[in-house]
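Running this now, will post back.
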Amino acid sequence: MCLLTFFSPTSSAEQLASGTALFRLNQLGYAPEQRKIALVFAEENPGYFLLREHSGGDPILKGSFTPAPAKSWSGKPVWIANFSTLKKNGLYRLEIPGRGSSLPFAVNSDVYGKLARASLKAFYFQRASTDLDAQYAGRWARRGGHADREVEIHPSAAGTSRPAGATVASPGGWYDAGDYNKYIVNSGIATATLLSAYERYPRYFTRLELGIPESGNPLPDILDEARYNLRWMLTMQDPADGGVYHKLTTARFEGMTVAPADAGGRRYLVQKSTAATLDFAAVMAQAARLYSPFSAEEADKYLRAAERAWTWAAQNPGILYRQEALNRKYDPDIHTGAYSDEYLEDERLWAAAELFISTGNTAYRDALQNAPIDYQLPSWSQVQWLGHYSLIRREQELKHLDLAWLTEIKRSLLKEAERLRHQSAQTAYQAPMVTSKTHFVWGSNSVAANQGILFLEAYHLTGDVGFLHSAADNLDYLLGRNATGYSYVTGFGGKSPQHPHHRLAAAQPALPPLPGFLVGGPNPAQQDNCDYPSDVADESYTDTLCSYASNEIAINWNAPLAYLVNGLIATTSKQQ
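Update: finished.
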């Protein structure tokens, strides 16, 4: 059993304020061989910096600042302190004489170990329909809520065998984000990202314990956690026809400070959709091959569910989830997350890829013909490259695959990775995330994490360690080398979110926020109309409970964070 403790060095409020304002750096720390840089905003060259052990003593290193290739997007000149020669384990701080010191940071070979486990343990904290015992949840223990044993069929989901108002059981799964609902589309990419991490690094994850109730059984903990959601997803498939309901939800969001055990709103299964059904098919097909070595019966259940979903989607290729239209036709109105998607070809291609890999059936391969080759970063609404990643990972095992086509897929991946790497070197923050203002969307931090996965895949194709450095640069961005000075992961770093838009946290106000969660990050659209300190794209973030547009947590943001940080550890420690 493993209860995690989290790295947040003790500092006074004055130190935190001055350190964050002066230096922007990875507040958690660095592996010994990692590139180590910090940024300072100043109109003039600050001169030089000193590196000291955090406990004090004589300087270990004196260095000069170099100008960044560009100003920040707010127009501030940026200066770079490079202290990559520091290799010795310890706790350190940077200093500009007469101006102040940085937040403390560590250097050691396991500097990301706790973050790696916490980013996955976050999914345990999101479990619905079960108590979280203190043995595993520590001070964040809570009573279970949303048993979901009597979920009502919404009129939009009614069928012959399941009329409107009938009740079905759909327990388990993860709460989607800061709310208490469960959505197949977002569960799809989140679960698939965890499964893909295991598929890429099986030896590493076989050894990784998370301190969850299933720890110690024959299944790796990451697969145990994914299984908790997979079993819920199975309940979302209509046994009569194989179609999959879009979501399980209350009509409106629960109150912000209501604990799960006290939430009593009626829950509904809402309309089947083609997007949800294809996402389900893809995830179940991938799960079938990964769980097969542990349970042939379980794997068969997943595969049969995937193939039935594929068949339904082929018969119903354009059933879109349009919530406003649904509300004009049915009662009660539904006002929770829509996850509407008007383009379904990427879902179809993802499902075809996973089914082909798991079955070898050439009919699924043929469905991939003429698939677009241009790289597109995965997101909940753009999932095609989840399938391409899987094809690349399993290339050696696949028969009857057009290798020339797959070669073009790999070239497209490397072209995008090279482009981002080249442009990153021209930015003020020296991170791929800040190469374009278009990256700063709702959930922008997941863009940074998914870019990190792209770089890991590029490294595995080429062996070019420069791609690992680019992946680490985006992790540095997430942990503090950014325009706001925040480490965007709760519980990690000297300045991290204290008021995330997260009902589980808001319901326990006397406790720190649950650790290991990646908040959404800067979002200049500011859809929540909260008070923001800036509308500059990379500064448009506010650590307030009301800010669902910049400070919410979500399973599809945490999954790529978990892949990135665990993947970096697995790759650099050669535990793939």
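Residues 1-19 have pLDDT under 50 and may be disordered. More later if anyone needs it.
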